[in-house]
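Review session, final week

We close the course with one last complete record, chosen because it touches almost every idea we covered. It is Pyridoxal phosphate homeostasis protein, a protein from Parvimonas parva with 230 residues. Go through it on your own first, then we will talk.
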Amino acid sequence: MKSNINNIREKISLACKNVNRDEKEIFLLPVSKTVDVDKIQEAIDLGFNTFGENKVQEILKKYEYFEEKVKFHMIGHLQTNKVKSIIDKVELIHSLDRISLLDKLDLEAKNKGIIVKCLVEVNIGKEESKSGIFEENVFDFIKEISKRDNVFVNGLMTVAPYCENIEDTRVYFRKMKSLFDEISKLNLKNVDMKILSMGMSNDFTIAIEEGANLIRIGTSIFGKRNYIKC
Ligand SMILES: *Cc1c(COP(=O)(O)O)cnc(C)c1O
């Protein structure tokens, strides 16, 4: 795991150099879905304390195990009926993508007396298989969020389409960065565009070159996932 991480850090560094960015801008979020707790502990020992997960049940289990030692980001599709159980146990939700979820988050955050921090998930490739809202609807959606009192937008997230030729993902990441910049300029209440979450094991160097500042890496850190166990 240590050499995997060093390998990733080197690639981050190179990608940053290519476009004159400071590598300190890049937050590496290890994605620990399906990974068991001793592997997570190994990553903790290597200096990580924040992990990405995509299933509510799994977050609850791991949250109980690690208690306050670890922070979780919810990066997967979030069902409204699971919001209540998780809203005060995650640091950031990357997958705010519809009004019904916004309504529920706003309500449950109010009930708990907290502000819930979210990224708006964009389906930048307009793929049927993926969640996220289409780019042309992002502005209206964020304006709607900005009317609420208990939900805060910290940025955008996307999962780029899988491309045979990795260079072909560039155009999608570029579109995300320009959306991100345009929304920043609006200076909306409850909106502070700080995080652009894009790039995974196969495409993170391109994402960084195009402006990502949070990359979500699973396989390249923990190895291939074993979905059977979950
Ligand atoms: C699983 C997952 C990742 C990590 O993917 P890898 O290819 O294993 O790096 C990143 N983002 C989301 C939303 C995921 O579900």
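Two points worth writing down before the exam:
Strands lie at 27-30, 50-53, 71-74, 92-96, 116-122, 151-158, 191-197, 214-217.
The longest strand covers residues 151-158.
Good luck, everyone.
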